[in-house]
Amino acid sequence: MNLWHIAWNYLWNRKLTTSLTIVSVALGVALIYAVLTLYDETKKRFTEEGQAYDMVVGGKDGSPLQLVLSAVYFMDKPTGNIHYADYEWLRNHEDVAEAYPVMLGDTYRGFRIVGTVPEFFDQTWISSAARGTMRKPFKVGRGRCFERSMEAVLGSLVAEQTGRKVGDTFVGTHGFIEGLGHKHHEFPYTVVGILEPSSSPMDRVVFCDLTSVWEIHADHDHAEDEASKTEHHGNEENGHGGDNHIAESNQDETSDHEGEQDEDEDLEVTAVLVRLKMPGARFGFKDEANTELNAMTAIPAQEVAKLYRQFLAPLQTVLLAVGFLVVVISGLSIMIGLYLSIIQRKRDMAIMRALGASAYEILGSVLIEAFWVTLLGIGAGYLIGCGVSECIGLALTKRYGLTIGVVAVNVKELTAFSAIALVGIVAGIVPAWQAYRTDVARDLAEL
Amino acid sequence: MVRIKECRRQLGPGVRFRCQDFWAAAGTQTALWGPSGCGKTTMLNLITGLLRPDEGVIEVDGIEIQNLSEGKRDRFRGERFGFVFQTFNLLAPFTALQNVLLGMRFSDTVAESEWKAHATHLLERVGLKHRLHSKPATMSVGERQRVAIARALANNQKVVVADEPTGSLDPKTSEAVMDLLLELCDEEKVTLLLVTHEREIADRLEQRFDCSGLIEEAAP
C-alpha cells in the first residue's frame, strides 16, 4: 500500500470519469503519434528512393516534381517522352556512372508496366533503415530477370494482389486508368520472375524490357495513325486521354508528321534515372543536360525536400497543433475532474492526514493520480496511434507501395510524449495544491 | 501520558478554547464528557496535533507537541494516536483490510513485511475475518466501526481517541462496539480518550473529565 496504490484506487473508484479522461488524452496522443510517425516514415521512404538517383531526365510536359513522382515513385502522370538518343547521350556521358531508362505507357490491373533494361535490377541504394549502409532493393525471388521482349518481372505486391506466378501470361492495358484503355491482346507478357519485397513503389510495378513497350506501341501507334486519318484524333478522351504515353507525346506527333525518318530516331523513353560518378557535380551536370537535351531535368532529393517543405510540413504543423490542442483540453479535463474529485474527497484527505499522512504525501498522491491518467492516456493513445498508422500504412502500401514501420518510437515521439506527460502533471497541480491545503480539523468535523 | 496545561486557542471572533489543566495517565480510559458544543472535539484536536494552541503546553508521551513542525506532528500523530470517529471515516475505495493497512502506511511503527499479517490479525480480533476484502459500502454500521477500531490500533498506538464512537449506532450495536473498544484498549494497555455527550457511556470509563466551560464566548 503506497501512494501509487492509493492514487490508483481512487481512480478506479470513479471508473467512468477516469476512462473518459483517459480516452480524451489518448485521442490527442494518437493524433500526434500518427502524424509524427506517418510524416517521418513516409519521408524516410521517399528520401531513400529520392537519394537513389542524382537526377531524372524526362519530357517537358509537366513540373519537375511531377517528373520525379512519375519516374521514380510511379505515382503521377508522366511528363511526356524524350528521344532514345537523349538516353544514349546520358549513358555515354563521362560524368554518368549509371543511367536507367524507364518507359511507361501501359498498366496491368492498375499496376504500371515499366520498360527498362536488365541492369536496372543490379542497383544498390543507401538504406534509410541503417544509415550509410547500402542495400540492393531489387532481388528476383522466384524465376529470373527478363532476357527478351515480352517477358515480365512482377513486383512483389503485383504478384500478391494479382495471384500471377512464374510462367503465367497476361496482357497490358493501354494508358494509366484501369478499365478505360484497350487491352493489347496480341502482345501477351509471360511472367519470368517475381521480385522480393523491396518496401518501395517498385513493389507495385511490372518490369519488362524496353523493347516490349516499343513493340507494343509501334503496333498501337500504327493502328492509331490509321484511325486518326479518319477520326482526326477525335478520341483523345478515351482510355488514352490525359495519359502521356508514347503515341500521344508531343515529340511523337512531330515525328509522325515529318514523315519518314530513321527508325532509331522514333524510339523514345519516358525518363532516364541518372546516377553520377560525383553526386556533388549534379548542379553543373543539370545545366549541361538542360542545354544539350530537349528535356526537363529534376533532382529527386531536391524535389522531395520541396514537397515536404512546401506542402507536407505545414500540414504536419497544423495536425500537430490540433493534436496538442486536444492534449491541452484533455489536461483541462484532468484538472477539472481531479478538482471536483478533491472537493468530494476533502474528508478522505483529512482522514489520511489524521492517520499521519503529511501534506506533501497528500499532494503527491493527487499528482500521481494525474500522472496515472496521463500515462494510461499516452499508452492507449500510442496503441490507437499504432493502429491508425498501420491502417494508413496498409493503404499507402496498397496504393503507392510505401511500406512504413509504425511501432518503433523515435526521439521526436518520445519528446512529444514527455511534453504530454508534463501537461498532465501540470494539470494535477491545482487540485493537488487544493488537497495540500486541507484543513484537517475542519474537514473532519464537516459532515 | 497526556497532559494539557494552561492551553488557549482562539476559535473565532470572541470565541476561545481554554483548558487550565488536564491529565490522563498511560493506559487509563478517560471520558471527555459534556454537552454538544462545549469544546470536547476541539480538545481532542489539540491533543492530537490537528490544531495548534496559541498558548500553553500539550504533552503526549513526554513530548511537547505544540512546538513540533507540521510534518513532525503528522508523523507523531500517525505513530501515537489511533482515531475512531462517529461516522467511522473509512475510505470508500478501499477494502476493510486496505483501510487497516492505510493506518500503518504513514508511520514506521510496524515493519512493512508484517503489515498484512498484522492487519489481518486485528480484523480477526474485532470479528471481521470474513470481511477482509469487503468495501465499507457493503458492510453494516457496526462492522464499519469495528474496522475503524482495528485501524486505530494498527500502529500499536499508545493513545486511542474516540469521538462519539457510538453516535451513529443503534443501542445494541453501540453496546457491542463499546465492549470491544474498552476490552481492546485494556488488553493493549492503550490510553483511551473518549468523547461523548452520553452520561451512561461516560460512566463506563474509569475516569471522566467534564468539558463544560472549555469554550469561552465574549459578551456581544
Summary?
Chain A has 14 helices and 15 strands. Chain A has 447 residues and is an alpha+beta fold. Chain A starts with a helix and ends with a helix.
Helical/strand content category of chain A: alpha+beta
Tally of helical runs of chain B: 7
> Which structural class should the secondary elements of chain B be placed in?
alpha/beta
Question: Between the first and last Cα atoms of chain B, what is the distance in angstroms?
Answer: 38 Å
Largest interface: A-B, 25 and 31 residues
Low-pLDDT residue spans of chain B: none
Largest sheet report of chain B = 5 strands, antiparallel
State the helicity of chain A in percent bands: 40-55%
Strand content of chain A: 5-15%
Q: H/E series of chain A, N to C? A: HHEHEHEEEEEEHEEEEHHHEEHEHHHHH
Overall body shape of chain B: globular
* Mean pLDDT score of chain B: 87
**N-to-C CA distance of chain A:** 27 Å
Q: What percent strand of chain B?
A: 25-35%
Structure in words:
The complex is a heterodimer of chains A (447) and B (220). With 447 residues, chain A is an alpha+beta fold. Helix content of chain A is 55%, strand content 14%. Chain A has 14 helices and 15 strands. In chain A, strands 1, 3, 4, 7, 8, 9, 10, 11, 12, 14 and 15 form an eleven-stranded mixed β-sheet that branches. Chain A has a two-stranded antiparallel ribbon with strand order 2-13. The radius of gyration of chain A is 31 Å and the shape is elongated. About 7% of the residues of chain A have low confidence. With 220 residues, chain B is of the alpha/beta class. Helices cover 34% and strands 25% of the residues of chain B. Chain B has seven helices and ten strands. In chain B, the strands form two sheets. Chain B has a five-stranded antiparallel β-sheet with strand order 5-4-1-2-10. In chain B, strands 6-7-8-3-9 form a five-stranded parallel β-sheet, sandwiched between helices. In chain B, helix 3 packs across helix 4, helix 3 packs parallel to helix 5 and helix 5 packs parallel to helix 6. The longest helix of chain B is centred in the C-terminal third of the chain and has 17 residues. Chain B starts with a strand and ends with a strand. In chain B, 48% of the residues are buried. The mean pLDDT of chain B is 87.
